Amino acid sequence: MSISAIIAAAGSGERFGAGIPKALIQLVDRTLLEHAVSSLAPVVDQIIVTAPAGFEKQISEIVGDGITVVTGGATRSASVRSGLAVATGEYLLVHDAARALASSELASRVIAELKSGQIAVVPAIAVVDTIKVVNVQGFVESTPDRATLVSIQTPQGFNTAALRDAHASQSEASDDAALIEANGGKVKVIVGEERALKITTPADLNTALGFLDLGRDIRTGIGTDAHAFGQGRPMWLAGLHWPNEEGVEGHSDGDVAAHAVCDALFAATQLGDLGSNFGTDRPEYAGASGTQLMKETYSLVVQAGFRISNVTVQIIGNRPKIGKRRAEAIAAISAALGGASISVSATTTDGMGLTGQGKGIAAIATALVYKQ
Ligand code: CTP
Ligand code: MG
Known about the structure:
The protein is an alpha/beta fold and 372 residues long. The protein is built from twelve helices and 17 strands. The chain has helices at 32-40, 56-63, 76-84, 104-115, 160-167, 177-182, 202-211, 256-269, 274-278, 290-303, 326-336, 353-356; strands at 3-8, 26-27, 30-31, 46-51, 68-71, 91-96, 120-126, 133-134, 140-142, 150-152, 156-159, 188-191, 218-237, 240-248, 306-316, 341-347, 360-371. Helix 8 packs parallel to helix 10 (290-303). The radius of gyration is 27 Å and the shape is elongated. The model has no long low-confidence stretch (mean pLDDT 95). It binds cytidine-5'-triphosphate and magnesium ion (MG).
C-alpha cells in the first residue's frame, strides 16, 4: 500500500511579488519547497513536484535525486493533473509548496485516515473572521453561521483512483477535495495546524518564521581589530583591494574588517578567536588574506553546527571612504561566508584617537548565529 505525494509548486507567486516563483522563496535556511519536501519525505514513498515551466531543471537540482519533477499547468488543478499522470501510489497526498511548514505529523494523520478507508481527507482550522457572501454589485447576500465554517489546508489525502476519477473531467477548483465533493464523494475533515498556513504575502513569511524553532539557540558575538598605516603596503579592506590607498602594518594583508568579522563569528560560536584558530602555531595561515580567513572561519562555524543569521561590520577611520564601494564590500564578505546577510558601515572619530589622527584603521563586527 504505497503512498505518493504531489507538491504543487508551479504557481508564480503574484501576490507575494518577489519576482520568482513562490516555492523558491527562502525561509531561513531553505526554500519553501524544500521545507515542504522535508516534511513529506519521511512519510511517503514517492514525491512528485510540479514546477513552473522553465524552472524544471533548477527545481530538480534543489530537491535532489529521487524526486520526480513535472511541468505544472496554467491552474493549480492542471498542475495536480500533471502530477497525477505519474503518481504510482494507491494513496495520494496533494500538498501546496506554499504551506511549507505543515508537519510530518499532520501528513501522518491524513494517511492514517486513508488507511482506515476514507477516500478523501482534509485538514481544517476554525475561521476567526465572520465570512459573508458578497454579490458582484458589492452588497452582502448572506452571512453563513461561522460555527459551520472552517479553513481548509493541505496536505489533503485521497484514494488515488478516486482523485483520478474526479480530475477526469478536467474540472477546476481551488482544492482537490472540491472535485471529490462534486463527484458526490465523502470528504473527511480532520484537525489542521496553525503552522500549515498558506504563505501568500511577505507578512505571511514573518508569521511562518515564528513557527520555526529558532529561538532556542541564537547567539551573538563581537570582534574588533586595528592596525597602523604602513609605508608602501597595499590596502586590503573588507575583502577588497583599494588601489592608491596606503595599507597597514602587519604580517597578514591587514584587512581589519575581515579580521573583526572572523572574531565576531568565533565569539558567537565559542570557537576561540583569530589567534587560537590561525595563530603562530598554524604556519599554514601565515600571510593568509582576510578573504581566506573568512572562508576558513565560515567552514569551522558550519562544522560546529551553526548557521549565520547576519554579520555587521563597522570600519573606523578617515580613509578609505567606504560609501562608493559598500555594495562590493558586502558582496565580497557575503561570498566568503556562504552567502550570509552582511552590512558594512563606516565612521570617523572627529579627529580623536589613533584612527581620527589618521594613524590607522579599526573595525568592529557583530555576528548573529543559530544552531541547526
Ligand atoms: N500552483 C501550481 N500551479 C499553478 C498555480 C498554483 O502548482 N498553476 C501551486 C502554487 O505553487 C502553490 C499552491 O498551488 O504552492 C497554492 O497556490 P497559491 O498559494 O495561489 O500560489 P501562487 O499561485 O504561486 O500565488 P499567487 O496566486 O499569488 O500567484
Ligand atoms: Mg495562485
